[in-house]
Structures are given as structure tokens and as C-alpha cells.
Design goal:
Distance between the termini: 110 Å
Strand content: 15-25%
Shape: globular
Structural class: alpha/beta
CATH topology of the largest domain: D-Maltodextrin-Binding Protein, domain 2
Number of strands: 14
Number of helices: 10
CATH superfamily of the largest domain: Periplasmic binding protein-like II
Largest sheet: 3 strands, parallel
Strand order of the largest sheet: 4-1-5
Helix content: 40-55%
Number of domains: 2
Low-confidence stretches: 1-48, 290-294
Order of helices and strands: HHEEEHEHEHEEEEHEHEHEEEHH
CATH class of the largest domain: Alpha Beta
CATH architecture of the largest domain: 3-Layer(aba) Sandwich
Mean pLDDT: 84
Length: 294
């Protein structure tokens, strides 16, 4: 009987140990599930009431801003190879208003929006013009710039005098840019390039007939290259709105509102006008200026 009792006690001990192990595993699983839900909320993908994009940016103390870095005077590298330009200063001033540090990430034009889509970047500041197609996919800030599009050709080109003359001609422009879209709308065949310098070089070398770009960017180029054999054949009648795109979701709503408030304060204080004059030689920040350059 003592032997049987001993064996029974061993079985009970083993069963108790096994039960404790199961309970411990269950507790660990519950803890992991709770942690996962917490992390999901922190990333903005959790249930309503969790921190949105603005709150996460301010908690982190950093806003990630995407731009090309090759489109003077919007975003470019100066003689010291430092990132400079109108959009760079706008980004710094917005970050200051939000109480965070700006981190600028450079990339090719079409990659800027791809990065914004997947949350790699918080915003894109790169002279982005509002179009109907973009407005379907993104929400935009209030305008911080007004620009007209210039049709740029060589000085000896007499075939292209207006946008309608682009039919059957070749142009060079950044892939997926508004300039590429406009050129194609007028029947041009567009070659994709990476920068304004590339487009200008292709016009000067005769590899393409024309290029489209911001009027202010062209005049900035001519200030640096006054002997370049280029001219503006035509300008769009109306100015385009330059705004900051955001992902079209509730997560980005409060950030857009905060950026709009920052832009309003920068407009009111004259800061936008000051840096616009610095980089463009004229004030493109107000609607009354319509982006015209002297």
C-alpha cells in the first residue's frame, strides 16, 4: 500500500507541475498579446483613441521630410554640399513650430510619394503642385507657393511658340511630374530624367526639343548660367498651387492641421516672403503674386 501511495503521489506531483507549466505558458501568451496590441496602437494601426501621426512625431521629437535635393532653388546642395533651398527652410520652420527636429531624406521624384504611401516619410516638401489626380490620393496643406509653368526651348527654336506646338515633339522631364503630364497632354513624347540640370542639358544638346519646369526655377538657372542659349517660349496663364501632401487618412489629419497653422503663422510673420525673396528673387508665397518672377 505504501508503494502504491508513493506512486500516486508522484503522478499527482507530475500532474501539478504540468498544470503549472500550462498556466505559465498561457500567462506568457496573454502578455505577448497585450504587448502586441500596445505596439500596434503606438504605430497608429490600433484601435481608435491611440496616438495619431502628429502625437507620435512629437513624442519622437522628429519629423521625416522627403525631398529631391536636386531641384534648385527648391531643394539642392550649395557650394559646401549642404542641403539648401526654399523647401528646406520651409521644412525647418514648420518643424520648429511643431517643436521637433526635421530629418531630411533625399530621393528621386517618383520615390518620394512611394515612401510617403508606406509611411517611410511623414511628409514631402518638394515644390509639389496640386493636381486633380494627386488630390484623389492625397490630402494637401494650404498653399505656400504659387508658380507658373514655363515652356523652355533653345534660343534658335522657332517651331515651338506655344504649348500646342508640343504635339509630335520631344521633351525631358522628371518621371510622374506635373510637367511630364502636361507635356504628354499636349502630345509630346517625354523622356524621363532625374534633375533640372539634366533636362536643360538635353535641350541645349538638341537631344530633345523642349522642357517644362517652374518659371522661377528657370530664372534661377539663368542667374547661374547667364550665357545658356535658352528662352521661355510660353507660360501657363494660371499659377499652380504648391502644397504639402499627406496620406489621406485620419492618422494624418491633425498633422495637416498643425502644418496649416504653422504656414499661416509663417505667412503672417513675413517669414515665407523673406525666404521666397532669398531664393527666387520675388515673393511666390502669396496668391497675389501668382509666382511671377522679375
Amino acid at each position: 500500500m505504501r508503494g502504491m501511495r508513493a506512486k500516486t503521489e508522484v503522478k499527482i506531483m507530475k500532474k501539478t507541475a504540468f498544470t503549472k507549466k500550462i498556466l505559465a505558458m498561457a500567462a506568457a501568451a496573454a502578455l505577448l498579446a497585450t504587448t502586441a496590441c500596445s505596439n500596434q496602437g503606438a504605430s497608429g494601426n490600433g484601435a481608435a483613441g491611440e496616438k495619431d501621426l502628429l502625437a507620435r512625431i512629437q513624442e519622437k521629437g522628429e519629423i521625416v521630410i522627403a525631398m529631391e535635393g536636386t531641384w534648385a532653388p527648391w531643394t539642392y546642395h550649395d557650394e559646401q554640399d549642404e542641403l539648401a533651398g526654399y523647401d528646406v527652410e520651409v521644412g525647418k520652420l514648420i518643424a520648429e513650430k511643431l517643436g521637433v527636429t526635421p530629418t531630411f531624406v533625399e530621393g528621386e521624384w517618383d520615390g518620394l510619394f512611394a515612401g510617403l504611401d508606406v509611411g517611410r516619410y511623414d511628409i514631402v516638401i518638394n515644390g509639389v503642385e496640386v493636381t486633380d489626380e494627386r488630390a484623389e490620393k492625397y490630402d494637401f496643406s494650404d498653399p505656400y507657393g504659387y508658380i507658373r509653368t514655363a515652356l523652355i526651348v533653345g534660343t534658335d527654336n522657332t517651331d515651338i511658340q506655344n504649348f500646342t506646338d508640343l504635339s509630335g515633339k520631344t521633351t525631358a522631364n522628371s518621371i510622374s511630374s506635373t510637367y511630364m503630364t502636361l507635356a504628354e497632354a499636349y502630345g509630346a513624347k517625354v523622356q524621363g530624367v532625374d534633375s533640372l540640370d539634366d533636362t536643360i542639358e538635353m535641350v541645349l544638346s538638341g537631344r530633345v526639343d523642349a522642357t517644362l519646369n517652374a518659371e522661377v526655377s528657370f530664372y534661377d538657372y539663368m542667374k547661374v548660367h547667364p550665357d545658356a542659349a535658352l528662352k521661355v517660349a510660353a507660360l501657363t496663364d494660371d499659377a499652380s498651387l504648391v502644397c504639402i501632401p499627406f496620406r489621406k487618412d485620419e492618422d494624418s489629419a491633425s498633422l495637416r492641421e498643425a502644418v496649416n497653422q504653422a504656414l499661416a503663422e509663417l505667412q503672417e510673420s513675413g517669414e515665407l516672403s523673406r525666404i521666397s525673396e532669398k531664393y527666387f528673387g520675388s515673393d511666390i508665397s502669396g496668391a497675389e503674386n501668382q509666382g511671377n518672377a522679375d
